[in-house]
Design brief:
The chain has a domain of 84 residues. 88% of the residues lie in helices and 0% in strands. It is built from one helix and no strands.
Amino acid sequence: MPPETIESRVDRLERRMTYLENLPDRITALESQIVQQRVEMRGDFSAVREEIRTGDSVLGERIDETTRVLGERIDETARVLGERIDEFARVLGERIDENGRHMRVLHEDVIGRLAIIQEGQSPRRRRRKDG
């Protein structure tokens, strides 16, 4: 490779210097874009935070409403269940009483029949041994 002439070296150096001279403008433009991006992102993050707060508020209201409705339904279910249990206990008590009366009637009937059977039987005679 032949040695480079001074003129070509100076030309190359001038091009590099021109490039380097333009570099601060490019860096300033890039810095401006970064600052603008940062401002936009800050605004977007604030908007997202606000949406989350609003969503949390709406979600909280929905949870409160759901809790209230479920509480009312549980109370109503407990009331109806209590009424049904009371009715079941009342009917069961009546049936137990009715069965008790029926058993007493049957018991008295059995006692009466046993008395009739015993009246109809003659006393056992002893066998005499002839002797």
